[in-house]
Amino acid sequence: MSTSSYTAVNKPVVSKDRVLPLGQRLSYGVGHIFNDLCGSMWFSYLLVYFVGVVSISNVNAGIIMLVGQIADGIFTPIVGLASDRTKAGACKIGKRKIWHLIGRSK
Question: Of 80, 82, 85, 99, most Cβ neighbours within 10 A?
Fold first, then answer.
């Protein structure tokens, strides 16, 4: 028997034993906050570097950052779909490990 069912509006109804405890949900959230904080510090430093060291104008530095974010937004789902379609036998230690290797060998 299934642990979840669907309502008339097609939203899954999850049984009580499948819900994460509040402490675990908060822990995931705190981890994501630190991830975003690290990214914010990196992008702030990069803007200061572009303007102060490389002497790029504020507008051009912002455009460079925007182009990078747009490219990331386009290619992340494409690489995600490609990694989802990778056959399990492509690498003996996991089907996404080959993608990690490709990403690190720039």
Answer: 99
